[in-house]
Amino acid sequence: MALPLHIFEMRYREMINRCIEEHLPFGVTLIAHGEEVGMTADPYRVGTAARIVRVERLEDGRMNIVAVGTQRFRILHLYHEHSYLTAEVSPFPVINGATRRAVELSQRVRPQVLEYVTLLSKAANVNLMLDRLPEDPLTLAFLVAISLQVSPQDKQKLLEAVGVPEILALESYLLARESKLLEFMIHTGKEIQALNGGPSGYLFPN
Questions:
Q1: DSSP 48
Q2: Which of 18, 22, 170, 175 is deepest in the core (most CB within 10 A)?
Q3: Positive/negative CA dihedral, 17, 23, 24, 30
Q4: How do 63-79 and 31-33 pair as beta strands?
Q5: Cβ neighbours for 175, distance < 8 A, ≥ 6 positions apart
Q6: pLDDT, mean of residues 141-148
Q7: Contact 174/166 with Cβ under 8 angstroms?
Q8: Within its chain, how far is the Cα of 44 from the centroid?
Q9: Does the structure show a pLDDT above 80 at 190?
Q10: 13-21 mean pLDDT
Q11: Which of 121-125, 139-143, 193-197 is modeled with the greatest confidence?
Q12: Sorting pLDDT into bands at 50, 70 and 90, what band is 40?
């Protein structure tokens, strides 16, 4: 998934310049406690490594970049030696993508996704298109994780799930929950205005 970012804070300019010069990825993590501004933020311990694939440098030193996620990681130790956080991390690969349980759960999730997209289209009064769903449980799990319009905390739970069966099981629960809320919104005539809030209050056009 491509992640466009506008880099304007000095500490992040420093970080991105280092990543470019040393061909390093950077970590994308959700803040668990504290504020993003300043050095008091404490991130969740599972995040995603991102690789910079495009850079547009602006005259005043700001940058527009595009990064793509590569793999999950666990934070082992945080360091505060720079103006930005750095960390020692270990890979956190997704496992059990080809197990019988993963296949069974993918078969449950597939119709739920189609129903969810249909309901979301009606509630938001927009035409949302979804191409043919992948057969591979791992690919399906990733697609649903990207498509679900839920809170950052729910997304974090998906990111932290150990393997494909756990991801799909949580997605099945979230799809059922969000679909019920969407049905209520449709039946009561409540429309999601301009795609500003999903049924749980989070809806962002992908």
A1: E
A2: 175
A3: positive
A4: unpaired
A5: 109, 112, 113, 115, 116, 144, 148
A6: 95
A7: no
A8: 13
A9: no
A10: 98
A11: 139-143
A12: low
- State the Cα–Cα distance between residues 168 and 82, nearest whole angstrom: 38
Whose tokens are 């506008």? That residue is 6
Percentage of residues of the chain with pLDDT beyond 70: 89
Residue 111 tokens, joined: 């119709």
Amino acid (one-letter) located at 189 = G
Residue 151 neighbours by CB distance under 10 Å? 14
Contacts 24+ apart (CB under 8 A), 12-21: 12/84, 13/61, 13/62, 13/63, 14/82, 14/83, 14/84, 15/82, 15/83, 15/84, 16/52, 16/55, 16/63, 16/65, 19/52, 20/52, 20/55
Task: Answer for the pair 65, 5: CB distance below 8 angstroms, yes or no.
Answer: yes
27: left (phi over 0), alpha (psi -120 to 50) or beta: beta
Give tens-digit pLDDT for 52-79.
Answer: 999 999 999 999 999 999 999 999 999 9
Q: Roughly how many angstroms between the first and final C-alpha of the chain, as a whole number? A: 10
pLDDT tier at 203 (50, 70, 90 boundaries)? very low
Q: Tell me the three-class secondary structure of 52-110, residue by residue.
A: EEEEEECCCCCEEEEEEEEEEEEEEEEECCCCCCEEEEEECCCECCCCHHHHHHHHHHH
Query: Tokens 């995040």 correspond to what residue?
Result: 47
